[in-house]
Amino acid sequence: MELLSLPGLVLAAALLLLVLCLRTRRTRQPGDPPLIKGWLPYLGVSLKFQKDPIGFLKTLQKQYGDIFTLLIAGKYITFVLDPFQYQLLLKYHRQLSFQIFGRKLAAKAFSVKKLLENDDLNHDLHGVYQYLQGKPLETLLENILQNAKQIVDIQLGESKNWNTTQILTFCRSVIFELTFATIYGKILADDSKKIISELRDDFVNFDDKFLYITSDIPIELIGNAKSMQKKLIQFFSLEKLTHIQGWSEIVQQRQNILEKYYNLEDTEIGAHHFAFLWASVANTIPAMFWAMYYLLRHPEAMEALRDEIDHFLQSTGQKKGSGFSIHLNREQLDSLVYLESIIFEVFRLCSHSGAFRIVEEDLIISSDTSDCRLRKGELIAIFPPMLHNDPEVFEAPEEFRFDRFVDGGKKKTTFFKRGKKLKFYIMPFGFGANKCPGRFLAIAEIKLLLFLFLTYFDFEILDNQPLRQNHSRLLLGIQYPESDVSFRYKAKV
Ligand code: HEM
Question: Looking at the whole model, is its pTM more than 0.85?
Fold first, then answer.
């Protein structure tokens, strides 16, 4: 029987399922945290968790306390829910590794394989994350502003009358184009617009399957994920890279490092670029979507933000005018407290990032309340959305309140639980040493775009219905909406 014939594939899938089911037959032993496996072999409680993650975990928390183990898609994950216990991940950092988890994910999702065995490459690539902070970050921001100017100028020309489109489609297009131009530069080709649109569509096609790609299912069995992956890696082949001009410092530094570890022609260099491009847009797109969606549905938020922007423009002697003429740096962006509060409120409501570590050796961890045993090869995770939805920390957590992070005209940074001040209260970017290195850029990019859109355009939402999140990014980042939402915009007169 040919391995790739239909019966061959069915047999391979059946064998795989059997192996996966056998791997998930573990029982609770003395000292283990409570173990909740659900009814379904291998899948465990995946479906219940995916349907209503917060509600499901809250129910389990009432029954079992703040630490318990769940079987989710073939993986045993011990959740630590009390925010004062998040530190356990730091305290036991020697035995709890992010690296193995992250590298396995990179190997499967992006075909970046060398990181699995080469610590030096990993170390060097982490070293250049400094180019996403400080002075290089200021340069990136100046470039975003310049690139955004071109996008806004075109839109201003095309929207003298109302332009109707959909929020997610609009945000995808703007964030993808802007981020690519800022980080990778300009594609030198007459049809560069078409090339970028095609790249974006391939990215969306791949990204739609990301939750499955991160599971144990071989990527070859997930629709066209493998061919999309290949195509996206191919986009960054040596020959094609030479046609992209104006790389940012971070991309140039990464390329220098990659050339030290690979032959120049090695396709895995392209895989690293693809992974970085994915990281730079995959969460920023839905975050931008929700920011616009909530602003459009909350006129009081829109008004407060417009006032803040008008006040800033007046105080810095800048006029809105018809053409694009705005200047602002990171410090100025950060002084806009309502703008920041709106973005934090979006993160609070829409981020479903967990932070994971692989347990490298059997180990007993001592929490404030008890000791519990963790097993080698399993996962331990914190899930900050539980904190984000905790009514003791955030009153009426289900509501969007644009000024939740403003107090007396200043940024509000103190939040309490059980009468104790919380060290962490908004955590969309992971935790500890592996926190997202692009977080400053992401926040600045969203702030800048909202600032420019509100300065130059009027907006109206057309489908003003409540919208649910689709949970396709559960544990992995900012959620996507269940459907897109129509809106219209027009250049201000
Ligand atoms: C709203 C937007 C963003 C969100 C919510 C987000 C969130 C995250 C999260 C949760 C992680 C994993 C951290 C962990 O598991 O401990 C991560 C990693 C990462 N992010 Fe972001 N991110 C965003 C934007 C960006 C941007 C704009 C860039 C780059 C320009 C970026 C680059 C990266 C990279 C390179 C990593 C992997 C870090 C490593 O190698 O350990 N991210 N991000």
Answer: yes
